[in-house]
Structure formats: C-alpha cells, structure tokens
Amino acid sequence: MKRNFKSSNHLFILFLVKGGMDKLPLAAKLVKARKIVTMMTGNAYYATPIPSLATITSKTDALEAAEAAMDGSKIKTQLRDIALNLFQAAMNQLQAYVETTANSDVEKILSSGFEVRNAPTKAVKLPAPTEITVVALPNAISLKWKSNKKSKLNVVQMSATGLDKDWELKGESTKSTIIINGLAPGTTCYFRIAHINSAGIGEWSEVVVCIPNF
C-alpha cells in the first residue's frame, strides 16, 4: 500500500497534476470545477478531500452567482473578484491534495477530473524549508518558516510519534506560514514541512515539536 509521502531521499512524483485553471475563462472554470466534484464524489482514492467537495461546490456556486449578478457597477465587480479569489484558492488546495494523495499514479490523478503533465526534465526539487518557528495556541499551533520564492506551494505533515510510518498530510499553504487547528491540547505533535515546485515535493524540513495549549 502506497503512502502519500515517502522520505526526502526519494523523488517519487513522475507526473504532476496539471493546473492552469486560473487561465481559463470564468465559465470554463465553473464547468471544470463541477466536473472535478462529480468525479471525486465517492472516489475511493480520495476519501477526505482538502478542502471538502462541499466547500468546492459552495465556492463554485458563489462565483457563479456573483458573475450572474454583474451589472457593471464597482461593488458588483468587487464582489465577483472576491468570489473568484476564494474559488481559485480552494481549487489550488484541492489540486495539491490530489497531487500528494495520487502519489504519481496517473490513473488516480485522471480519476479526479484533473489532468496530468510531465514534470520538466530540468526542474530539481527544492531544499528543505529552514528557520522554522512553532507557537502553541489553544487547540492549534502556528508554523512559520523562511520563504522560498521558487516554491509554488508548501505542505505540512503531522505525526503523533515522529516515526516515518506515521506522517500524514495536515495542511497546505501558498505562504510561509500556516495555522493547524483541531489539535488535542496537551498532546505532543510532530511537524515537518516541504516545498513543492514543478519537480514535485522537495526535501522535508527538520522535525519540530509542539504541544497545543488548552
């Protein structure tokens, strides 16, 4: 059984999820998003999508409604742009979830409704994130690390033990900071971070430990 991630010594993503939805006309974005939701609904490969398919549907509906309400006024345009930004952010998160969960399996990627592309031969994986700081919060933790301009996305894994077999995807961020919510207070949690670029997932950072507050 394949895990979502392997150690930083293995570059395992041979195919990447094809993005580019931001370049599509708005109507095509809506059609594409609804197709992806349909194909991922009940898909055994993707048991717990991040964000949820209900969230994707909600953002898609909101964008469609905002576009339909356009009347040329500044306020309607601003509302449509806000809805578009929220929609695109949710789709970027879902793309990252599919990419990490599919683990280079083309069949799995295509079954999600996303497309695949070959990773550029000249691309190299990024080094591990550095200068990591972690702060305990009530039922949550805050992570921050040094920004890498070549990174398209940053992924965070969490483990209850810090052992290789126990790592699981906990969050993604396009920024160099993230808050992980819903953690059990007083419980020791282990975290590590990696950058993603066109070569795939880079090297994992050092492990940091934090105990969420009550």
Structural class, from secondary structure content?
A: alpha+beta
| Helix and strand pattern | EHHHHEEEEEEEEE
Number of helices: 4
Question: Low-confidence spans: pLDDT under 50, at least 5 residues?
Answer: 1-15
Mean pLDDT, all residues: 87
Distance between the termini: 36 Å
Using the alpha-carbon principal axes, give the shape.
globular
Structure at a glance:
The protein is of the alpha+beta class. The chain is built from 4 helices and 10 strands.
Descriptive account of the structure:
The chain has 214 residues and is of the alpha+beta class. The chain has 2 domains: 15-118, no CATH class; 133-210, Immunoglobulin-like, CATH 2.60.40. It has 4 helices and 10 strands, in the order βααααβββββββββ. It has helices spanning 26-40, 53-68, 74-102, 106-111, and strands at 15-18, 115-118, 133-137, 140-144, 153-159, 168-173, 177-181, 189-197, 200-201, 208-210. The longest helix has 29 residues, at 74-102. The protein is globular and about 50 Å long. The relative contact order is 0.18.
